[in-house]
Every structure is written in C-alpha cells, then in structure tokens.
Amino acid sequence: MNRGASIEPPALPVSVHAPRPHLARRLALTAAAAALAACAATPPRPEIAELQRQVTETERAFAKTMADRDHAAFVAFLADDAVFFTGPVPLRGRQAVATTWQRFFVPPEAPFSWTPGEVEVLASGTLALSTGPVRDAAGKLVATYTSIWRLEAPGTWRIVFDKGSDACDCPRGP
User: Fold this and answer.
1) Cβ contacts of 6 within 8 Å, gap of 6 or more
2) 3-class SS of residue 147
3) More confidently predicted of 90 and 12
4) Tens of pLDDT along 145-156?
5) In angstroms, rounded to a whole number, what is the distance separating the alpha carbons of residues 143 and 145?
6) pTM (whole model) above 0.70
C-alpha cells in the first residue's frame, strides 16, 4: 500500500437533517403564498346599508315570533348575556328573559306587536340599535322600544339589550 497516497473516506449517506437551502426557500415561499391567499379569501365586511338591512330583517323576524306565538323562536334571537328592562329589575341572561317573557306567548292572540322604525349600525359593524313603535292588540300605540343587537357570526344578529318606554301624548317643544 502506498503510504503517500491519500485515501478518501467513503461517501456518507445524505442525512434528512442536512441543510437544504433550496427546500427552505421553497417552504418559505409556499408559506408566504398561503398567507396572501388567506388574506385575499377573507370576505370584505358588508357596507353599513347592508348591515342595517340585516338588522331590520332580524328585528322583523324577532317581532314575528310574537305574532306567530312561537316562544322557542323568540328565545333563539336572545344573546346568552341579554339584558331586558321588562320590569323594575332588569332581566339578565337568556334564561331569565325567556322565562319572564313566556307569559306573553300564552294567550292565543299576541298582546302587542312592534316594528323597526330606525336602525343604526356602528362603523365597526358589530353593534346595532333598532327602535320603533309598540302597539297593543287593537293597534293603538302604547310604547316605543329600543334594542341593541350584536353581530355574533356573519349574518347572525342577537339582541343584547331591550328597553321599552311608555308612549306619551305629550306636547312637543318648540
């Protein structure tokens, strides 16, 4: 054997952990493309007019539960943390509101009805106010209501606050 000749070590197997710059670059580009695609896939927030239309339709459907005598449908519109000012002490939570309002669904005829008169939505698109007249079974104006709705999922509004005020034949100021 020739001691002066260099002996090359045997070739080592390629490790799966060996750095592969081209693979790292490809992974980075793929991740960046996926992130951009996710941003592009996010639907744009609806315009205020569309949100107002949604809340108006939701308020009408909510009122229809009373006309239809459908207590279960009424309860489905309530947020879990809803607060209703029905009596001297606010009702807190879906169950408290559902239990107290059950009495309004017992008679075969609805004791009152309501319709949205005005609807406004925050610029964030997450909260809305609905207000309008409340009429007795004969159609006489007896109160006005004000409700606050929260967007809980795209197109799903739930009522979080509700308060009525007695109607008044008070003279208006100058």
Assistant:
1) none
2) strand
3) 90
4) 999 999 999 999
5) 7
6) yes
